[in-house]
Amino acid sequence: MATSSNPMAEPTVVLPAAESGLSSAKPGGWSRWLCPSLFDLLFVSLPFWFFGLADGGTGLLLFDGDTGWHIRTGDWILTHRQFVMGDIFSFTKAGQPWFAWEWLSDILFSLMHSAAGMKGILLFGILFSALFCGLIFRHMVWRGANMFIALPLALMGFGSATVHLLARPHLWTLLLVAACGWLIQADLRKPTRWIWALIPVTVVWTNLHGGWLSLIAILGLVAVGTGLEARFGGAEWSTAKRYLALAAACLASSVVNPYGWRLHAHMVEYLRADWIKNMISEFQSPTFRSENAMQFELILLASLVAAGWALRRKQFVGPLLILFWAHSSLVSARHIPIFVAVALPFLADELQRFWLTWTSGATRKSTLGILQGLASEAQPGLRRTSVWAAIPFILIALPILPLPWPTDFPGVRFPTKMVATHADLLRSSRVATEDQWADYLIYRFYPEQKVFFDGRSDFYGEALTKEYVQFMGAESNWKSVMEKYGFTVALLKVQSPLSTVLKESGAWRVVDDDGKAIVFERRGQKVVRAVGKGMENTDSGANENP
Q1: Whose C-alpha in 382, 383, 454, 495 is 20 to 30 A from the C-alpha of 66?
Q2: Cα separation, 359 vs 370, whole angstroms
Q3: pLDDT value at position 53?
Q4: Confidence band for 28, pLDDT divided at 50, 70 and 90
Q5: pLDDT by residue (tens digit) across 394-421?
Q6: Spatial CA neighbour of 496 closest among 527, 520, 532, 472
Q7: pTM of the complete model
Q8: C-alpha dihedral (127, 133, 137, 140), degrees to nearest 10
Q9: For residue 442, what are the contacts with CB-CB under 8 A and spacing of at least 6?
Q10: What is the DSSP string of 97-112?
């Protein structure tokens, strides 16, 4: 068993090369990079299998319309050569202060979209999904997990994470959590100066996605965990102090952003708001009714048992991380991928301990002995990679393969055909529509189109969000909201409550209905046309909105 400079650091179970007899099977020199490995197979096949065969295909990465306004925010920043400080997308809060805290991701999205269209965005999503899974897998193998442990856990982990694998800036957080978690565990085993690289990483991370707070939480938990281990005589107090200082330094470095400390105040207010958890689906608890939810449930239960085993050995870092992120993932489904990235390496440790106990007395010709031999033979191929891991991604990125890349958001999720058919009407009107479809209208028609309410819930606040939810639910105030904001067109789902009441209202006529989306136009009302940054009114009938 490998030793650590920190006696209470999370243990790593490693088979000695002499025992496994695999030193001769590991290619050296240039052949190391030219000979494909088992890890390459996993790294390439898993995302291509999922996004190629799953219902929805690569379009699953575009199931959230927020990607649209991220692209257009990046366009605006590159065009104006300045940070966004006020709203540019709505007519309800036009020009009011807005924290575009993911501005760096937005620029990258804009550049990818300009270079390759939706193909560029999808390549980003596929590559980062593969890297996320690959890092977790390699971390487990680095800690000593064999093929029969690391592979099933990686598959279940990827399946669990698909609940929130979308082509959005949060993919940066998933990747960085997996990478930083590995770096922290390597530092606990053998401290190096590389751990301080997390400070500049935090600076970049803060401007990519708001998930940088997860790093602060992880560092704080590691400091507490090593402190508890020091209390029981298994670690040094200096380790706890080191991580506490690192957490403070990373938090201080996060002030390096266009909004300074005001961003932190805004995020604290946003994350503490109960109304967000009640109204925004991704902030709500998961429902255990799908295949990926059941995979998450298995990992959750197994990780809690593993945490108990570790606590019996007076190890606290792993259990604290598992318990904290297990709680977070049960409160909000968006934290499930982070929980997977944090928990799986510790779970793999405990399962490897059980494996070694289970197979310790097995003979070579027994079933257990054969399985142990297979695991030992496969281990070197799991610990290395080659150029073959990158070649498939390069091939699909180059315009040499006639692959049917989507050129728009998925039609099963968004009213793409209806918007294309009635583009002139929609872009020149104040449109009542749901937030996800408003995101799509921003993508299609900005800057001509301004919207009522889109996916930026932190910007619109509690009052307007409640008004939006009640309006879309066709509650008693829907007519007053129609008058208040001067809607002249409605783009709705056919079965939506608001669609039902508009069909019964003599003030609205159906322009088109394709069975999925329906377009209404207000009879004899003023059409509000978007012109530049303002709005221009033109009559379409005798009566006018107040």
Answers
A1: 495
A2: 10
A3: 63
A4: low
A5: 888 888 878 888 899 999 999 999 999 9
A6: 472
A7: 0.88
A8: 130
A9: 68, 69, 72, 89, 449, 451, 454
A10: B---TTHHHHHHHHHH
